[in-house]
Amino acid sequence: MKIVGKVRILGTPLVAPLTERPCAFFDAVAENYAGVVIARETFGHDFLVEDDTGLALVRVKSAQVVVKLDACYESDTTQATSRQWALLTRHIRPQRGRVRYREGTLTPGEIVAVVGTPYLEAHPNPDPRTSGQFREMAMRLVFDSDDRDTVQITDDL
Description:
By secondary structure, this protein is mainly beta. Helix content is 6%, strand content 46%. The chain has one domain (2-154). It has 1 helix and 14 strands. The protein has an 8-stranded mixed sheet, with no helix packed on it. Strands 5-4-10-9 form a 4-stranded antiparallel sheet, with helices on one face. The chain has a two-stranded antiparallel sheet with strand order 2-3. The longest helix is centred in the middle third of the chain and has 10 residues, at 82-91. It is elongated, with a radius of gyration of 19 Å.
């Protein structure tokens, strides 16, 4: 099944290391002058996708996530910003030379596609449009990778 909708953050958003964008997922990469990756940080936490039919929970832990690396910078290590320098020093001992930085995120409100085999899960109804109405237990789709199925997530639509 495939759904397309807007990212909604669960809890406290992550902060992307290069741009400090609030997000549910980030991929930050630094490459040397030869195009070799010298530092990479990728991290995400569960988030919701909202479409016209409601909310789906997306579990990120084992998902295959592909984000557009839409923030691109280049600098000499001697002119790196504090965020660029921090990324480098967490992974390598920086030496002089040109470095290219790229970062992609899944930010609140961004349109994403999620593909996988979801299951239904009962949950408290967070939708204020239906509060106070009699209805059965609210259900939502949950996308979660397992041994048989992988969840794929992308903002590259």
